[in-house]
Amino acid sequence: MSCTSRRVVRLARCQQPGRVAFTFSNILRASNLYSGSSGLGASDSQHHLGVNTLITYRAYATKPVSRPKAHTGRKTTSPRKKASTSATEVVAAKKPSTSKPKPKARAKPKAKPKAKPKAKPKAKGRPRRQAKVLTDKQKEAVLAKKKRQLIGELKKTALVHPIKLPTSPYQVLNTEISKERHTIAAKEASAKLKELSPAELEHYNHIANQNKATNESTYKTWLESHTPEEIRKANIARTRLNNLGVKIKQKIHDERQVKKFSTPFLTFVTDRFKTGDYHGLKFVDATRLIAKEWKEVSGGDKMKYIDLSAQDQQRYAQEMKAVYNIDTKPPLQSVSAA
Question: Is the dihedral of CA 317, 322, 323, 328 positive or negative?
């Protein structure tokens, strides 16, 4: 090593108080101080560049060599490798890194296993409501309401007769007076009827006869507009209405209706009335006498009326099927003496 290189090393060691590490930055600092001195020539400056180059590549040789350790007798399997560090590696180690460390990705929490849904308890049925106890008045009100509903349904089934025109001179005269005064004039019509002349009376009779013919044709048209089955149901409804205390007109007369069959006793009663033996007697008294006779009739004579009744029952079954399309089984009974 030349004199110049020794000076550089000494300057590098003496820049700071105490022991200074033999680093590349200190050497550069010492070389700059040396180059700035006024006593250096051209040859010294050239030698300075060589010193820098030499020091750059031989910076690792500044550490003093220690004494070798005494041999302990152990054999080493492999020689230790010498540490070799270049100046460029030292500079790279000293420079702080400007890049920020990447944040570590957070580990996703493990998904918890879904809990099994608990079985829903079976819904209990609603408790039954206790029946409300009605008082006597409430019971009567309920029965009255049901009766009104029943009467309304029966009236619809019973049918309504067509309106009839007046069929007598008195009715014709009463109708005329009532229309003029808008009130019932029964007494006035009766008094005026007595004062009518023969020509006026004949006039009112003629009007009454015309009304009769009109009523018959109107009724026939109305009757034919309904089926025999509707007329049958209407008559049943009228009977029920009369039993419920509702005043309603008599049953509808229709020749298409099937006549009820006759029992052996009724056949005997009809036969006895035809003889005329009970003429002038009340119907109740006459039937009582006929009932006594029926009890006294022998079995052979009663078979005659039983056979007649069986034939009538056959006729009734056939007509019910033809008119109402209803199947009925005739009793075909051999009725014993009542």
Answer: positive
Give residue 245's region: left, alpha or beta (phi > 0; psi -120 to 50). Answer: left
SS3 sequence of the chain = CCHHHHHHHHHHHHCCCCCCCCCHHHHHHHHHHHHCCCCCCHHHHHHHHHHHHHHHHCHHHHCCCCCCCCCCCCCCCCCCCCCCCCHHHHHHHHCCCCCCCCCCCCCCCCCCCCCCCCCCCCCCCCCCCCCCCCCHHHHHHHHHHHHHHHHHHHHHHHCCCCCCCCCCHHHHHHHHHHHHHCCCCHHHHHHHHHCCCHHHHHHHHHHHHHHHHHHHHHHHHHHHCCCHHHHHHHHHHHHHHHHCCCCCCCCCCCCCCCCCCCCHHHHHHHHHHHCCCCCCCCHHHHHHHHHHHHHHCCHHHHHHHHHHHHHHHHHHHHHHHHHCCCCCCCCCCCCCCC
pLDDT computed for residue 101 by the predictor? 59
Confidence of residue 293 (pLDDT cuts 50, 70, 90): very high
Own/partner pairs for 66-69, CB < 8 Å, 24+ apart? none
- Which residues contact residue 141 at a Cβ distance below 8 angstroms, ignoring those fewer than 6 apart? none
pLDDT at 51: 45
Q: What is the dihedral of CA 60, 63, 67, 71, to 10 degrees?
A: -40
Q: Using CB atoms within 10 A of its CB, is residue 196 exposed (0-12), middle (13-18) or buried (19+)?
A: middle
pLDDT of 128: 75
For the stretch 27-56, pLDDT in tens is 556 555 545 444 444 444 444 444 444 444
Higher pLDDT, 252 or 250: 252
Q: Is the pLDDT of residue 165 over 90?
A: yes
pLDDT given for residue 169 in this prediction: 92
Q: Tell me the C-alpha distance between 151 and 149, whole Å.
A: 5
pTM value is 0.51
Angstrom distance (rounded) from CA 64 to CA 325:
140
